[in-house]
Amino acid sequence: MALRMKRISRKLVAAAWLALAPLALSACSGMGESALPRPFALSRAHVDEVSPRRDGAIDRFLPWAEEAAEMIVVDKVEKQLVLYRHGKPAKSYPIVLGRVPGRKLYESDRRTPSGLYRVTAKRPHAKYGRFLDLDYPNAEDVAQYRAALAGGLVPAKYRGSIHGPGGLVGIHGSDDEKLNRLGIDWTLGCVSLANGDIEDLYREVDEGTAVLIRDDELP
Asked: Cα dihedral sign for 155, 158, 164, 167?
């Protein structure tokens, strides 16, 4: 069983890097916005709907994730979170993100990171109902932060030894669902769902679930 899980994990990592590689290439080459294809086609949810979850309304199969019992894909452009089971989309939820667009670089930049993560813990939260902790920052995030630091992209007040790429990033509910319904990005870097949706997702996923957060924006 352990060997099988390692094989699945390697496949997810490899597939995620294939999906994310164009981002790194475009950032290094200065070509501007990446032409990275989106992993699934979704229309934007109507902002005046309450919890417009559309089970079965998406049909994009992810063959590289078919051995994973569960996987979460967060599309920051379409502002949708999709739960996959064995590569098949099971449920989708509208989301809002960090207040500042782009990929997270450093602590307190109020951006949502992009990359491959895992749910490290599930816990109740006094303010946001339910909280799924993610293992941010990973090695790639640390490398990205160091590159940003060397390139002068980190403000001076965030360059001290107590600062870095940040942490405490996760998927959670909302203390003001009006903002969620209007599609207004308000978090400090986390992914936020309506409270009914986070309750549903919380029941659906286990600790260890892979989470791919992707976009086609440059920092």
From this structure: negative
What pLDDT digit, counting tens, does each position of 29-63 carry? 232 333 223 333 333 232 233 333 444 445 588 88
The CATH number of the domain covering residues in 2-34+54-214 = 2.40.440.10
When pLDDT is cut at 50, 70 and 90, the band that residue 216 belongs to is low
Report pTM: 0.74
Compute the distance between CA of residue 60 and CA of residue 25 in angstroms, rounded to an integer. Answer: 26
Tokens describing residue 6: 């390692």
- The model's pLDDT over 124-165, given as tens digits with 9 standing for 90+, comes to 999 999 999 999 999 999 999 999 999 999 999 888 777 899
User: Domain residue spans in the chain?
Assistant: 2-34+54-214
* Contact present, 175 and 133 (Cβ < 8 Å): no
DSSP β-bridge partners for residue 73 = 82, 212
Q: Rounded to 10 degrees, what is the CA torsion of 117, 125, 69, 21?
A: -20
3-class DSSP assignment, residue 13: helix
- Please answer whether residues 180 and 51 qualify as being in contact, where contact means their C-beta atoms are separated by less than 8 angstroms: no
Helices (H), 85-187: 139-150, 177-181
